[in-house]
Each structure stands twice: as structure tokens, then as C-alpha cells.
Amino acid sequence: MNDKDFEKLVFGMAHQIRNPAAIIKANAGVILETERLSPAARRSMESILNGVKYLEDRLDEFVEFSKPLTLNLQKTDVAPILSEACSMLKDQCSLKKAVISSKLESVALERADRNQLFLAFMNVLLNAIEAVPERGTVTVETRRQDGAAQVVIRDNGPGIHPRDMPEIFSAFYSTKPNSIGIGLPVAKRILQAHRGDITVQSEQGRGTSVTLTLPNG
Asked: Parallel, antiparallel, or unpaired for β 108-112 and 137-145?
């Protein structure tokens, strides 16, 4: 199966799943708003809605991963993109009472796709937030290294087990129960499309550091 056929298959499957999911979501919402439910029944309906939301989110990730990657290259500063991503993830942090600490200096790139870089940064940041314990810390830093732009995202989570390290960039590989495992593969795909690279260092019990390197030009 070539890439075009795979893309058509994914979009077809997504359409077939989204339609019944939308019906379930709409009817569950109506029942919650109009019916007098016992506490147990209300929790069940809310669980149904949460399940549909999870299904929709994972489906969106899968569809996005199947699309051909095209870049809209223009002069871009990495720091504002990261700042926006960090701001958007404040709610996720607050759920764990976690903190994002950032040291963002302006690092301009002559040719980069702002939206794709935003997606790459969001995926890595989400992984870091999910990894940290309650009241944990994620640090984000930008710097210029040998003419290239570098973004370093660190967390003080449990770290990655050595047996899992060879698979962290494999699509659909994940040790987390609520993940389909395309966050890091998507980030790597975007970095490679920019002729850049992404590397991961991790130590169990001390956390993980992800370095994203983007050439300037």
C-alpha cells in the first residue's frame, strides 16, 4: 500500500468512526441537559462523553499523522512559538500543580514552518507534562548552538526505562495507557522535514531531556 492509498484508508475509517461518535455525543449531551438523572447515571453519561472526547482526540492524531507533510517556509522566531505553546498548556499543568519554567531568548530562523514547529513543540511539551509527578517541573530553554537553533525541554519525571529507549520514535509505541504513541514520531518527522534533529536523554529516577535542533537556512 502506497502513502496515498494509506491516507485514503485512514480518512475513510475516520469518517466511518466520527459519524456514530457524533450521534453518541449529541444524544448523551441531550440526556444530561434535559433528564433528571441519579448521581450514578449522571456519572455514567459523563463517562460516555469523556470516552467520545478521547476517541475524537486520538482519531485526530491518527489522521494528522497520515497526512503528507508540507512546509510553509518563512522567517520565524522560535521563542514566541514556544511561549504560545507553554501558555496553552497551563490548564494541563494546573491539574497536576506542575510548573513550566522557561528561559526563552530570541532565536530566529530564515526558513521554517511556524505551525509545524508549534505542533512539534506541543507534542514534546505534552509528553513532559504527562511524565512529571504532582508539583513537578518542566523547563524550556532556547539557545543558539553552532549557528543552529536549539530547544531543550526537560522534565523531572521518572525517566524512560532503557528497554523502551530504542522504541520512543516508533509510531504507535507507548507505555502510557491513554496514548497511541505518535507524539515523538510526529515531532521527529517535523524536525527532519526542516533538516533538523531531535535527541532524547533520560535517566530513571531523574527525568528526561529532549533537544530539538533546527538549522538556520
From this structure: unpaired
**Residue-by-residue pLDDT tens, the chain, 217 positions:** 455 666 676 777 787 888 888 899 999 999 988 888 898 888 888 889 888 887 887 787 777 777 777 888 899 999 999 998 888 888 778 888 888 888 998 888 999 999 899 989 988 998 899 888 888 889 999 999 888 899 999 999 888 888 888 887 876 667 766 666 677 888 898 999 999 999 999 888 889 999 999 998 6
Short-list 207, 195, 189, 182, CA closest to 60: 182
| Best CA proximity match to 157, nearest among 205, 121, 191, 94 | 205
Q: How far is CA 34 from the centre of its chain?
A: 35
List the CATH code of the domain at 74-214.
3.30.565.10
Question: And the C-alpha cell for 42?
Answer: 449522571
The grid cell for 186 is 510526529
Buried residues in 125-161 as b, exposed as e (16+ CB within 10 A): bebbbbbbeeebbbbbbbeeeeebbbbbbbbbbbbbe
Looking up cell 449529541, which residue turns up?
Answer: 26
Cell of 166: 530504542
CB 188 within 8 A of CB 124: no
Going by C-alpha positions, the residue among 119, 123, 118, 137 that lies closest to residue 80 is 118
